[in-house]
Amino acid sequence: MFVVFSSGEEYLFWLLIQFLTGSSVVLAGINIAWMGRRYWLLNVIVMVSAIWNGFNITIVVYTTGFVIFSIFSILLIVAALIFIVRNSYLSSDVTDISERERFARKVSYTVNVLFGVMIAGAALFFSFAFMVFGGVSSILLIPAGAIVAWLIFFRWQMRWIRVSPVSAMVGGLVFLLAVVGGPFLVMYVM
């Protein structure tokens, strides 16, 4: 760990994060009995891995093997999103509800995960822009904070969808607008 932070080589830091996100997904899959009771945590771990793979696509643009790496990363992201929606839906005890309610839950889980993808995509775009124009600095905490806020909100959202799927979608949209519009509002006020 000391070598990563003292060597000045960025690829070691990237490799460390890649190793940690991949290992956390594998370890969560190995310990499925414990993770089964905390399905929201499994979704968050897989979403963090998908976000990191999305970030990887943006930073390896000018390397050799970019096309193959991008296709592989996109497949990982799509598989992660499908997993999150299916894991969320199947963990919500859908055996004793009507077909209409089941469909509403599926749509609500899918829409709320797409809201998270939009927040993560916007945050990654702004992170990349901040790094290009200003280098690595504390300003990068703003987009990272948006992703962390959504991951925390997602845990609460999972419970809310079981009670009222439609209002959970509206709440997710309001949260999306607050996270994306909040920094602009702060800049406008100041």
What's the quick description here?
This protein has two domains: 1-91, no CATH class; 97-190, no CATH class.
Describe this structure in words.
With 190 residues, the protein is an all-alpha fold. It folds into 2 domains: 1-91, no CATH class; 97-190, no CATH class. The chain has 8 helices and no strands. Helix 4 (39-59) runs parallel beside helix 6. Residues 1-5 have low confidence and may be disordered. The chain crosses the membrane at residues 12-33, 40-60, 66-86, 107-126, 132-154, 166-189. Keywords: Membrane, Transmembrane, Transmembrane helix.
Primary descriptors:
single chain, 190 residues, mainly alpha, globular, disordered N terminus, transmembrane, membrane
Order of helices and strands: HHHHHHHH
- By DSSP (H or I, 4+ residues per run), the number of helices equals 8
Which percent range describes the beta-strand content? under 5%
What characterizes the major β-sheet? none
Name the quaternary structure.
single chain
Keywords: Membrane, Transmembrane, Transmembrane helix
Question: What is the secondary structure topology, with strand pairs?
Answer:
Blueprint: H1 2-6, H2 10-30, H3 32-36, H4 39-59, H5 66-90, H6 99-134, H7 141-163, H8 165-189
Helix pairs in contact: 2-4, 4-5, 4-6, 4-7, 5-6, 6-7, 6-8, 7-8
